[in-house]
């Protein structure tokens, strides 16, 4: 599809990175900032993962063994917040920074200084959020959904720091999204027309619009909380004429698009990797673009499927049920296209492909349980049970997280100039695959049987399944130490990688050397 002219990278050696710490603090280079985001996300993945291990250790047996219920609630809340805002979102922004300019033949992101700021806000926001664990009254304990009045009238004092942290994360996300949009709209190489854009670029463009649409709503809702807590308003306080249900509407108007923010870039990644290892063009390219856009539009009209049990009008139940089910149509198109791309391809199963195939299969399981939850009358049984925990972990862990792992294996040769060890990569894949299923598959059943979520203890009939689930979680957690080892091992001791390590790969990122030079496409490539 594309060729490059010589882009004179050797002319720019004098523009190499600065030495030492200042390189990272002052950098405006999209590759450096991408690297910062990815390492930050990796660190948060381990912190959030540590909290998950604490939760699963407490739930290993019925009865209270390790931690008190108050602390348990802080762990679920911090786990959810850190995984969503600290691990998944920054990983995708890191990938966007590294890959979008290289994929569209641009020399950098459109707004490099804002790029630096949007990253450096994050360590402060998360340091502040994490520090709440050591404050009087402890960390936020009201769930990652922070429903009022739990998060207002009954919240620990640290909630004010939580609100500030959310504001900072929101500002960072909005800046990141503006940057992505400005880059894609303005900096494509000549000839890189819309329908030639790699799908990762398309899915990120659509994600960026979702971010700009909903992060201000999140900022609004935490500001209303701040007013209720400190300035005597009663937005969410029924005693003062406000409404806790209003909180839920506002939160989920942000929250449902947010779950698509965490999955659309994953769709783009998988759409890049599967064709490479099937050695075929992606089946149904334009239908992928339309399906992604449809999913994004629909995501704005389904929010109350999280609120079937609060007492919304009957017509509302029907509307949100039907609208939610509609999302299955474009999603089905995507899964069909990935499977059809593989059909009769000459497949090989390197680590990125293994993670991508597992993504297609296991994300579909999460999609199906989502459809089950969308059935309003049935949701009265599932609501706030472990069935929900199983559902969203299937879309988040073998969905979002597996796509990120796939992308690390796929692009690490480009980033570091070195190949990872295939045996270790595959071992990491299989341990994670087994771990994730052992952890979350049984939770469907314990949820259907009635075990509520967000509880530190449960009745004896749930004991066996919880023990299995905890063992799976420990396996999954331990396997990620192997992942860390593989990444570090690649960077320090991997074999040298060629410019294009995957024979079936297409796209501009493979036309530059490995590791990608500090400046690429300072002269735009020629695209035919
Ligand atoms: C193997 C890794 C993981 C394990 C073992 C795990 C385990 C758990 C557990 C036990 C809960 C508490 C459920 C409850 O009591 O309601 C939970 C909640 C949650 N997890 Fe995970 N988790 C993992 C990975 C992730 C990832 C990668 C994400 C996001 C990308 C995530 C997002 C959440 C969210 C949003 C909640 C809800 C928190 C809340 O109830 O407010 N988890 N997880
Ligand atoms: Cu939703």
Question: What would you say this structure looks like, in words?
Answer:
Keywords: Cell membrane, Copper, Electron transport, Heme, Iron, Membrane, Metal-binding, Oxidoreductase, Respiratory chain, Translocase, Transmembrane, Transmembrane helix, Transport. With 528 residues, the chain is mainly α. The longest helix has 36 residues. It starts with 20 loop residues before the first helix and ends in a 32-residue tail after the last strand. The protein is globular. 66% of the residues lie in helices and 1% in strands. Helix 3 runs parallel beside helix 14. The protein is built from 16 helices and two strands. The protein has a single domain, classed as Cytochrome c oxidase-like, subunit I domain (Cytochrome C Oxidase, Chain A, Up-down Bundle), CATH 1.20.210.10. Bound molecules: protoporphyrin IX containing FE and copper (II) ion. The site of copper (II) ion has 5 residues, from helix 7.
Supply database-style keywords:
about 525 residues, mainly alpha, Cytochrome C Oxidase, Chain A, 16 helices, disordered N terminus, binds protoporphyrin IX containing FE, binds copper (II) ion, transmembrane, heme, cell membrane, iron
């Amino acid at each position: 599809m594309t060729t490059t002219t010589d882009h004179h990278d050797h002319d720019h050696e004098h523009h190499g990175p600065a030495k030492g710490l200042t390189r990272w603090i002052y950098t405006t280079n999209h590759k450096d900032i991408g690297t910062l985001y990815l390492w930050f996300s990796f660190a948060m993945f381990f912190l959030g993962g540590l909290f998950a291990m604490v939760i699963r250790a407490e739930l290993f047996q019925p009865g209270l063994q390790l931690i008190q219920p108050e602390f348990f609630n802080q762990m679920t809340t911090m786990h959810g917040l850190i995984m969503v805002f600290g691990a998944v979102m920054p990983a995708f922004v890191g990938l966007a920074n590294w890959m979008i300019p290289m994929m569209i033949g641009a020399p950098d992101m459109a707004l490099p200084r804002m790029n630096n700021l949007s990253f450096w806000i994050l360590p402060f926001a998360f340091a502040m959020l994490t520090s709440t664990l050591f404050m009087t009254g402890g960390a936020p304990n009201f769930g990652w959904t922070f429903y009022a009045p739990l998060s207002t009238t009954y919240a620990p004092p640290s909630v004010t720091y939580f609100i500030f942290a959310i504001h900072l994360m929101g500002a960072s996300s909005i800046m990141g999204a503006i940057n992505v949009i400005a880059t894609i709209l303005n900096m494509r190489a000549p000839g890189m027309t819309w329908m030639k854009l790699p799908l990762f670029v398309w899915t990120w463009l659509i994600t960026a619009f979702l971010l700009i649409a909903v992060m201000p709503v999140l900022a609004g809702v935490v500001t209303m909380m701040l007013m209720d807590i400190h300035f005597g308003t009663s937005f969410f306080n029924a005693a003062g004429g406000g409404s806790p249900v209003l909180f839920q509407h506002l939160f989920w108007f942000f929250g449902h698009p947010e779950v698509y923010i965490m999955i659309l870039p994953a769709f783009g990644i998988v759409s890049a990797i599967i064709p490479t290892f099937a050695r075929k063009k992606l089946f149904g390219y334009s239908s992928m673009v339309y399906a992604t856009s449809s999913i994004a539009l629909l995501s704005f009209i389904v929010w109350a499927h999280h609120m079937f049990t609060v007492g919304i009008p009957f017509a509302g139940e029907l509307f949100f049920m039907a609208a939610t089910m509609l999302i299955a149509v474009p999603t089905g198109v995507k899964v069909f296209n990935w499977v059809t791309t593989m059909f009769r391809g000459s497949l090989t199963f390197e680590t990125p492909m293994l993670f991508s195939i597992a993504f297609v299969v296991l994300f579909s399981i999460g999609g199906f349980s989502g459809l089950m939850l969308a059935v309003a009358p049935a949701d009265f049984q599932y609501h706030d049970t472990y069935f929900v925990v199983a559902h969203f972990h299937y879309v988040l862990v073998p969905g979002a997280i597996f796509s990120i792992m796939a992308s690390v294996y796929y692009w690490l040769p480009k980033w570091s100039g070195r190949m990872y060890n295939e045996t270790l990569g595959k071992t990491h894949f299989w341990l994670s695959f087994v771990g994730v299923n052992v952890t979350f598959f049984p939770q469907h059943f314990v949820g259907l049987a009635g075990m509520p979520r967000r509880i530190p203890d449960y009745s004896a009939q749930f004991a066996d399944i919880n023990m299995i689930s905890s063992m799976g979680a420990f396996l999954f957690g331990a396997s990620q130490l192997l992942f860390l080892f593989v990444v570090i091992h690649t960077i320090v001791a991997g074999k040298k990688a060629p410019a294009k390590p995957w024979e079936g790969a297409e796209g501009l990122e493979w036309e530059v050397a490995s590791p990608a030079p500090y400046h690429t496409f300072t002269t735009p490539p020629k695209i035919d």
